[in-house]
Amino acid sequence: MYVSPKDPLNSVHDWFQARTYQAVRPQHWTPEANLYADYLRHAEAAGVAKSRRVGPVNFATEMRGLMRREPQRRLATRVVGTAGQMVPFWPRVLRNARLLAA
Prior knowledge:
Blueprint: H1 11-19, E1 20-22, E2 30-31, H2 32-46, H3 56-67, E3 72-76, E4 85-90, E5 92-94
Antiparallel strand pairs: 1-5, 2-4, 3-4
Helix pairs in contact: 1-2
């Protein structure tokens, strides 16, 4: 099992198991920026203090450790008609959000 040197609370690992699953098809891969944004929302909902959340660089390191691979750079566009750029993608799919009872 992967042990995180940068995330002592294992908040990335908790998010990874709770909010993502393995992509079966190549077109289901998700950009790293989208995964990181979802991680931040999950950490906020879980009550992880801002000072204890990992930054984007450490998040990428955590993903490499959890996936045991490097991300694949793919072409992505922000808005239809704009120029695309190569960004890191991971073979993970975000689960649909669920409403939790209090």
